[in-house]
Amino acid sequence: MHPHKPHYDRHAGTAENKEFIKRISRQRIDPPAVPGGISAADLIDSAFLSYNGGRMREGCQLYAQRMLAPDCTVGLALSGALTPAGLGMSCLVPLVEAGFIDWIISTGANLYHDTHYALGMDLYQAGPSLPDLELRENQVIRIYDIVFDYENLLGTDKFYRTLLRGEAFQQTFSTAEFHNLVGKYLNEREQQTGVKGKSLLAAAYRAGVPIYTSSPGDSSIGMNIAALQLEGSKLNLDPFRDVNQTAGIVWEAKATGGTSGVFILGGGSPKNFMLQTEPQIQEVLGLAESGHDYFLQFTDARPDTGGLSGATPSEAMTWGKVDPDKLPGTVTCYVDSTIALPLISAYALTLVKPRPHKRYIDKLPELTRKLNAKYAEVRKERGE
Predict the structure, then answer these.
(1) Average pLDDT, stretch 61-82?
(2) Active site residue 184
(3) Mean pLDDT of the residues in the chain
(4) Residue 199: which domain range?
(5) How far is CA 313 from the centre of its chain?
(6) Residue 301 sits in a domain of what CATH number?
């Protein structure tokens, strides 16, 4: 035997080994056979045990048991083409109506395509292998395995240009204020056409849920606003107002003794804009805070490429985005959002009673005023 190499007797210490395994384990793997007719919630709890199935179960439990506590403010970051796939009406609208989402940051594309449904336009599920040249020749638009008539785009563009020429839109908005006003008109359209429950923008208006867009020019809604500016429109979106309002929402949640949870579908700009609320509060404004309490992300992005979409919650902790004492309250599951969102929606809606709507859209001026008052105190202390 080498004198410096320790010897491990694999037959010794069996009792100690078992105790060690118990300390690091959560449960013994001994699931029941999956029966026919089982609910999604029961299936997740009983059969989603390991690998990304295990992370899926942990994510569902984190969301239902901790993030949906009455005092937790839940922010949703939404990227990827989810609303054209029907996930707005099937999952996001029910979650908003149940009070399970308190504020949202979305790509503009999700909100633009959401509008098709409020206007009664049709999209169709097809297949991934389609003759794209023939589609173009027949004026058919494709989003992977979703197809729809080019007229949907032209009709939605016309709707936005007509609506936004109205007097009510001739001012400067945060993107949440803008989307709330759009949602008001889409809600009225849903009532007229009898298609209530199809539009996320309309549902958010009814529930008082602010919806921000981190890159307002990066969508067809922004493109139509740009065209209206060429006409002399006074409509303007102020992204810096967004920064202060979103920081105000998180500050209010934490300063009043509650918690803040982030629910991230995909990654990209919405993820960063949601998480940067904490560095804005701590680093820039100089207020005493420690980070979001809960972090739940469904993503297919890898962390080793250095991209934000795949950045882990422990990495976010180094920026002050996640409270280091709350890292056990974080889950990253590497799965397509189109798989994860229906599952977690069914899980939460089955097991958790609806929560009262926090209606942050009605409180944005007051939240910004409170944040400004605390920042004024810090500036005075700094002598600025």
Answers:
(1) 95
(2) no
(3) 90
(4) 50-382
(5) 15
(6) 3.40.910.10
